[in-house]
Amino acid sequence: MTTTPDLLILESSWQRLESRIRQVVPDIRASVMNEHGKVTVDGKPVPVEQLRSTLGWINLDVYTSPVRREYVQALLRIESLRWVQAAAAGVEDPVFAKLVHKGITLTNSDSQAPAIADFILAAALDYFQLQDQRRERQAAHDWQRIPFRELADTSWLIVGYGHIGRETARRASAFRASITGIRRRVPAKQDEFAHQVATLDRLPQLLPQADVVVLSVGLNEVTRNLANAEFFARMKHGSLLVNIGRGGLVDETALLDALNRDAPGRAALDVFHTEPLPQDSPLWNHPKIRVTAHASNQGSSTPRRGDELFLDNLQRYMRGSELRNPAKKDDLPS
Q1: Which of 116, 127, 179, 333 could form a disulfide with 296 if both were Cys (CB 3.0 to 4.6 A apart)?
Q2: Which of the residues in the chain have pLDDT under 70?
């Protein structure tokens, strides 16, 4: 059993979850940071440099807070810190590497996976059911039937078969699509939702067979610009590319050239090299690109799942049990 921890937490998070956190750790000591970056412990102001917190939580409240920078900088300065729960699925931000290199345990999040999987399925249905043509016909008052392709007739290649990849496969397999997942290692047991799981070195052989290619892999030196000219040259004509991973996975110039050759036939992009996407980017107006503002995780239940993950891991931490979603060092920037 771990001794009673100290927790650095934003005021908005503490107000929402104090009672539930105390159900797990009744005598927890909370260092509460307000929207001005000031910290109080038991209602008394405490200078940031004097904090002795052992736990931190970089949750969605932090990402949208005006004191995001101050909160993260406080975590990096605390010598007693032992564990940080992050709201991010990817851990490419250099802040995470700094925490891990200090010997701090870092756990990332799978709370956004169901929402992102829904987003990916919506992109596929929109494309294969020719929703653009349907909207055009409606606007023209043109009563015409439009044949469409069923998802059961499609093959999917999910590059990055982790939490998001498997949630996507769960949904696509329900439509009876054929699923291949790509991950670092092939599991010993047959996966429940994928017809096969392969490693990244098989990508050149698998790309020409895929009607849908999903990029849900982390960004590192191996995967940077993974989707390059050679990658697109192997893609099937009329296929769909969906990138919800990181903008750096895709060579955007090579993608524009490939779209003009219809391989892929459409790209649904939620992440970009530069965010927000510059107003003068050619990606905005390309007829075969669908742009969204890094919002595939904005599902109605994502915040609730993030809270539940932290509370579950807090309970595990207090028991000395294995935490969910420990960050993989291979995904951390060097």
Answers
A1: 116
A2: 1-2, 334
68, 134, 294, 324: the active-site residue: 294
pLDDT tens digits along 97-135: 999 999 999 999 999 999 999 999 999 999 999 999 999
For domain 113-291, the CATH class is: alpha beta
- Answer whether CATH 3.40.50.720 is correct for domain 6-111+301-331: yes
User: Which one-letter amino acid corresponds to residue 101?
Assistant: H
Asked if 271 contacts 247 with a C-beta cutoff of 8 angstroms, the reply is: yes
Q: What is the pLDDT of residues 150-172, one digit of tens each?
A: 999 999 999 999 999 999 999 99
Which pLDDT does position 333 carry in this prediction?
A: 73
Q: In this structure, are residues 331 and 96 in contact, taking their beta carbons and an 8 Å threshold?
A: no
Q: What's the CA gap between 6 and 287, in Å, rounded?
A: 52
- In angstroms, rounded to a whole number, what is the distance separating the alpha carbons of residues 108 and 87? 6
**Domain residue limits, the chain:** 6-111+301-331, 113-291
> In angstroms, rounded to a whole number, what is the distance separating the alpha carbons of residues 179 and 181?
7
> What's the half-sphere exposure (Cβ side, CA atoms, 13 Å) at 236?
17
pLDDT of the residue at 334: 63
- The encoded tokens of residue 247 equal 């903008």
Q: How would you list the strands of the sheet with 6-10, edge to edge? A: 44-45, 39-41, 29-33, 6-10, 55-58, 83-86, 105-107
Strand partners, 39: 33
Which of the following is catalytic: 166, 183, 246, 266?
246
- Dihedral in degrees, nearest 10, Cα atoms 266, 270, 276, 280: 0
Considering only CA atoms, give the Rg of the chain: 22
- Which neighbouring-strand residues pair with 32? 9, 40
Q: Residue 332's CB: how many other CB atoms inside 10 A?
A: 20
Of the residues 22, 275, 308, 319, only one is catalytic, namely 275
> pTM here?
0.95
Backbone angles phi, psi at 8, to 5 degrees: -90, 120
Q: Which residues pair with 107 in a beta bridge?
A: 85, 326
Is 275 among the residues known to form the active site? yes
